[in-house]
Amino acid sequence: MEYLDFELPIKELEEQLDKCMIIGEESDVDVTETCKQIEKKLADTRKEIYKNLTAWQRVQLSRHPNRPYTLDYIKAICGDTFLELHGDRNVKDDKAMIGGLGKINDQSFMFIGQQKGYNTKTRQYRNFGMANPEGYRKALRLMKSAEKFQVPVVCFIDTPGAYPGIEAEERGQGEAIARNILEMTRLKVPIIVVIIGEGASGGALGIGVGDKVLMLENTWYSVISPESCSSILWRSWEYKERAAEALKLTATDMKKLKLIDEIVREPAGGAHANREKTFETVKNKIASHFEQLQKLSPKELVNQRMEKYAQMGVFNG
Amino acid sequence: MTAWFKRKEKGIQTSTEEKKDTPKGLWYKSPTGKIVESEDLAKNFYVSPEDDYHVRIGSKEYFEILFDNNKFTELDAKLTSKDPLKFEDTKKYAERLKAAQKKTGLKDAVRTGYGKSLGKDLVVCCMDFKFIGGSMGSVVGEKIARGIDYAIKKKVPFMMISKSGGARMMEAALSLMQLAKTSAKLAQLSEAGLPYISLCTDPTTGGTTASYAMLGDINIAEPGALIGFAGPRIVKDTTGKELPEGFQSSEFLLEHGFLDFISHRKDLKRKINLYIDLIQNNPVRKEA
């Protein structure tokens, strides 16, 4: 397990607990009571730390190297019913954007999401979860296919942004994202969006328009990453913590601003601390939201979605 | 060496009739030089167990793989080609057709089967490469069109197995227009909301890729198949450039976004039916 800077007290206590248990095993000293005390302290410390996370700490958690990624969720949720589909039928199969069909209980869903890697090799292979235009076009192709067969869509968002490369611009990164946003507003099947990690700007919204948009507790979603914001507005990377606060990018802030629909609680210590529980929670959330959305006709669904986005924005007059 | 080992008479004395010979077709040699017994090959979905080489097979074998207990009804089995242009190259087209029919026991380069796959109805049109290179003329176009009509009528999914060198030159523009005819039918299938699975096998080139082979709700392929519009030799001669490694292979097409996945032949039946169950929102069937 890897620890973030603010998690160090937890790391220390966990090490103390390990040592205590070893002493108990290797000698006759009764350590039951001591262990219990440390365990309690650990639980309290964990609670205390996670109760008062700053925006920046949540950004750090959203990028935790042990955090589950899109394919982890899909495979845990669908088991062997998942059938991955590839390609934009145009230029390339984008490894940073994955998709395919799978079942939750007896219901089929089209799953789409950005995919990150878990070590240096796979991070490069997945382009750090930064999709190219072909990734967005692959996503759209799968959405249109789902619409054709009345299969609901689930999008998992976890990206530091759409890939800012020369070829990406040549092939129309902006156009690809724009097209997706437009088509998603009028797609005739339910769309459930779950932000499971980083939700950076257009790269996230390119698969992020939905009837229900959920954010996991320790994720962020905004128009720019705190680092880039700091660099542009403060002209230095040093102000990322302040930028994170200022951007109001946490799930709580986003809910207050009525830009997302629901916050999904994570296990104590974050999604990675108890992956199975996280998968189960997300699976149940998708199933229950679909249950409600399914009652609407395609027309009602689209009208309601369009109305929701029409309401967004704050202004005078 | 001792004398008893020495040949007494020079040359081979056995008469031709007495010569022992291995019957033809008992063994198969894959391109990497692996030797497989034909019986083992058939049991292994006509894939060399040594190197996973997918041997070129025809409609008979694909139907056997896909339809439960090899039970199916063949549709439009009697359609045969005419020679409307009185075409003649090194041989008369009419004669070429006759020779192909005699050699292969087939009527033309595609056959349509209707039957159950994992217990559910499916229409499969499958091309035969050994019939004039799996070329697409009026008969191929018409049989595919009728196969699609049948799928629409019965409300069942449609699968196309392509294995073709392209359009049939001996039917010239009549052949070309089969691209439009089959594509129009696929548009109707799509309007009817029925799934279309396109399987590209070795080789899928020319007119087939410029029509039905690339129009599936999912396009899938067998490993290592040659798939492309212009054949590799033509591309090389025209551009004067060396072709990249693996150019126009299934894997190349997957990387370039044209295939949904590549399936080993042993997984084919399970995977296409999994797709059908998922996209039609039905419970996932398991193999018996």
UniProtKB/TrEMBL annotation, chain A:
Gene3D superfamilies: 2-enoyl-CoA Hydratase, Chain A, domain 1 (3.90.226.10). It holds the Pfam family ACCA. Keywords: ATP-binding, Cytoplasm, Fatty acid biosynthesis, Fatty acid metabolism, Ligase, Lipid biosynthesis, Lipid metabolism, Nucleotide-binding, Transferase. GO terms for molecular function: acetyl-CoA carboxylase activity. It is found in: Cytoplasm. Transmembrane segments: none annotated. Its EC number is 2.1.3.15. Pathway: Lipid metabolism; malonyl-CoA biosynthesis; malonyl-CoA from acetyl-CoA: step 1/1. Residues 37-292 form the CoA carboxyltransferase C-terminal domain. It catalyses: N(6)-carboxybiotinyl-L-lysyl-[protein] + acetyl-CoA = N(6)-biotinyl-L-lysyl-[protein] + malonyl-CoA. Its main location: cytoplasm. Signal peptide: none annotated. Acetyl-CoA carboxylase is a heterohexamer composed of biotin carboxyl carrier protein (AccB), biotin carboxylase (AccC) and two subunits each of ACCase subunit alpha (AccA) and ACCase subunit beta (AccD). NCBIfam families: accA, AccA_sub, PRK05724.1. Belongs to the AccA family. HAMAP family: AcetylCoA_CT_alpha. Component of the acetyl coenzyme A carboxylase (ACC) complex. First, biotin carboxylase catalyzes the carboxylation of biotin on its carrier protein (BCCP) and then the CO(2) group is transferred by the carboxyltransferase to acetyl-CoA to form malonyl-CoA. This is Acetyl-coenzyme A carboxylase carboxyl transferase subunit alpha. It comes from Maribacter confluentis. The lineage of its organism: Bacteria, Pseudomonadati, Bacteroidota, Flavobacteriia, Flavobacteriales. The gene is accA.
Automatic annotation (TrEMBL), chain B:
Residues 1-23 are annotated as: Disordered. It catalyses: N(6)-carboxybiotinyl-L-lysyl-[protein] + acetyl-CoA = N(6)-biotinyl-L-lysyl-[protein] + malonyl-CoA. It comes from the Bacteria. Acetyl-CoA carboxylase is a heterohexamer composed of biotin carboxyl carrier protein (AccB), biotin carboxylase (AccC) and two subunits each of ACCase subunit alpha (AccA) and ACCase subunit beta (AccD). Component of the acetyl coenzyme A carboxylase (ACC) complex. Biotin carboxylase (BC) catalyzes the carboxylation of biotin on its carrier protein (BCCP) and then the CO(2) group is transferred by the transcarboxylase to acetyl-CoA to form malonyl-CoA. Belongs to the AccD/PCCB family. This is Acetyl-coenzyme A carboxylase carboxyl transferase subunit beta. It comes from Maribacter sedimenticola.
